[in-house]
Amino acid sequence: MREPNEPHDEWGRPLETINKNNSILNTIRDIFFFTVVGLLFLALFGWILIVFLPYYFGRAIWEKFELWYINK
User: If you average pLDDT over every residue of the chain, what do you get?
Assistant: First the structure.
């Protein structure tokens, strides 16, 4: 008799279980994959910050300088 929460297909047959043994190769593969994904994410958003942040930050500083110069 199968348990109610046991994975099964639409006809009630049990699904093949995936080998849940974490080998060292699977761990290394996961670490490498998520490191690469993280570096790509950082590169993309780091590039966006490097390109756009100086413009907006510099514009805000320039506006404060203009207001100070006009009101002095």
Answer: 85
